[in-house]
Specification:
Structural class: alpha/beta
Helix content: 40-55%
Strand order of the largest sheet: 1-2-3-5-7-10
Distance between the termini: 32 Å
Largest sheet: 6 strands, mixed
Order of helices and strands: EEHEEHHEEHEEHHEHEHHHH
Length: 258
């Protein structure tokens, strides 16, 4: 892997987009490597992922403008699909993914962060969808996820004006969950990931699926999705141990993902 590094720390995997000289901009090769990295993760040994960018200036500054500048309409659509397929894989990945946004998260960078379950950022983080200033629309899910995460009105304002927002405003509108000093960002992400990894993995995975799938349908259908996933947790070793520990007033000895 030339542009993606992966580290395993206990049950937590850390994916780093490592192209700092280009501010971690996304090109076809980066997307291809990220896709392959996701496919290679051992879901029996990994219970939470952290996605971040190399260096202190940029999470992901966007898609590679040099690569995009000469595309035909057909090639543009195909490039959008490459990014959307990878980001959708992150969004629907069985285990939670935390975006640790260190610096610029513009265009494709904002979009990839929005495909993660949870976003936390550094104080120097900057979010935005500057695409219309380049003569294009957001192409990696920005028009869809931003409107769902904040509000349609706020998403339209950000996208139509191409205005960037700083960390405090991202927190205010609900785009991120928390803001940290840069040096505290990764420790905070790892602490959160470890807290998730400590829980019953089958239940956490079922919760992610229930939330994601339920948001796509009406409440009557969503409740049925929850009921089925709720039921699927019973008679697992982790459910038996978790409830036994509670009833016996002791700590869980360690969930087994079984």
């Amino acid at each position: 892997m030339g542009f993606i590094t992966y580290e395993q720390e206990g049950f937590v995997g850390v994916i780093t987009i490592n192209r700092p000289k280009a501010l971690n901009a996304l090109n076809s090769e980066v997307l291809k490597e990220l896709d392959a990295t996701l496919d290679s993760i051992d879901l029996d040994a990994t219970r939470c992922l952290i996605l971040t960018g190399a260096g202190e200036k940029s999470f992901v500054a966007g898609a590679d403008i040099g690569e995009m500048s000469t595309l035909t309409p057909e090639e543009g659509e195909a490039f959008g699909k490459i990014g959307n397929d990878v980001f959708r894989k992150i969004e629907t990945f069985p285990i939670p993914v935390i975006a640790a946004v260190n610096g610029f998260a513009l265009g494709g960078g904002c979009e990839i962060s929005m495909s993660c379950d949870i976003r936390i950022c550094s104080e120097n983080a900057v979010f935005g969808q500057p695409d219309v200033g380049l003569g294009i629309t957001p192409g990696f899910g920005g028009t869809q996820r931003l409107a769902r995460l904040v509000s349609p009105g706020m998403a339209k304002q950000m996208i139509y004006t191409a205005r960037n927002i700083k960390a405090d405003e991202a927190l205010r509108i609900g785009l991120v969950n928390a803001v940290y000093p840069l040096e505290e960002l990764m420790p905070a992400a790892k602490k959160m990931a470890a807290g998730i990894a400590k829980q019953a993995p089958i239940a956490v995975r079922a919760c992610k699926k229930a939330i994601n799938d339920g948001l796509q349908v009406d409440m009557d259908q969503a409740i049925v999705i929850e009921e089925k996933l709720f039921g699927s947790c019973f008679k697992t070793e982790d459910q038996i141990e978790g409830m036994a520990a509670f009833l016996e007033k002791r700590k869980v000895e360690g969930f087994k993902n079984k």
